[in-house]
Amino acid sequence: MKFLIKMILSAIAVLVLAEILPGVKVDSYVSALIVAVLLAVLNAVLKPILVILTLPVTIVTLGLFLLVINAAIILVADHFVSGFGVNGWLWALIFSVLLSIFQSILYSILKKDKS
């Protein structure tokens, strides 16, 4: 149940960011939900592999290269979901940073409600 609520909150965050950012588009609520689920899967499967492969670069850049990995994951999701579009690396980077911030806020609200 908690996973489903997190996916719905992530889909809401994707929709809000698509309205705010001109370089990001989402066609429907279903597309936003698919993007949220796909990002969760990619972050669970692909991101640890990329982090291990790029560990030296990540250490040299003091972790800032993780932003590039997040943007790459957003672009992979863009490739697989037809109703979701991101116009380039810069918009993917901005989208990933803002999505992380929105998800942190929404998840903290979710934790406060359970208390």
Automatic annotation (TrEMBL):
<dbReference type="InterPro" id="IPR007165">
    <property type="entry name" value="Phage_holin_4_2"/>
</dbReference>
<feature type="transmembrane region" description="Helical">
    <location>
        <begin position="28"/>
        <end position="46"/>
    </location>
</feature>
<dbReference type="Pfam" id="PF04020">
    <property type="entry name" value="Phage_holin_4_2"/>
</dbReference>
<feature type="transmembrane region" description="Helical">
    <location>
        <begin position="89"/>
        <end position="110"/>
    </location>
</feature>
<feature type="transmembrane region" description="Helical">
    <location>
        <begin position="53"/>
        <end position="77"/>
    </location>
</feature>
<keyword id="KW-0812">Transmembrane</keyword>
<protein>
    <submittedName>
        <fullName>Phage holin family protein</fullName>
    </submittedName>
</protein>
<keyword id="KW-0472">Membrane</keyword>
<keyword id="KW-1133">Transmembrane helix</keyword>
